[in-house]
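Re: weekly structure request thread

Next one in the queue (199 aa):
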Amino acid sequence: MALVESLLSDGGFNVTTGASDIDVYQVKSVVSYRDMHGNTLGYTMYYNEVLIPDDDDDDDDDRDEVEEEYRIEGIMIIDGEEYRILGERSYESEPGESENETEFTVYLSQTRRMVVEQSVENEDGEHEREFNYIIYEGRNVIERSTFEYESERGETEIEMRHYKDGVNTVFLFDRETVRGEEVIRIRVGSMQSSEGYYV
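Done, posted below.
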């Protein structure tokens, strides 16, 4: 329940982006998220972004729609260590709807890399956030984590999945109002064996 309460209070996954405080980079992005035990984890990214030209004129008829795609290059700082990152960021918006997606690779060593995907989508009162990372040693996946958050018309759904050392762990959470009463359903455990709770 401590994990549930912390996820409800802050959504479990947050991205704060602003101007960089390091001269050689344009953007500073701080990402924080919660793991299965409720611990707050995170990292800081510093990067430059270059707008990728839009050579497709077919979708430029709708003047209310904005589509931008950027190439990003910079560094990620985790626990005081600095790693090189390369990737892309895209932004789309139209009246009542916006979507921001970032995908990049973090080069942890000569043989190890982490691929990160994060997205935030808002549409007429519906809010979705997703965060994924996969760590590769050579071509082999050694760790994978997924966090999904969705809030719509008073209902909140959270899904967390984690894989490491051959073990898959899952946490599913659903909160809604049924006949005027708040109901929370939780499922937690491994892919082979899990337990359900109803609050």
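The CA atoms of residues 43 and 79 lie 8 Å apart. The mean pLDDT is 84.
Next request, please.
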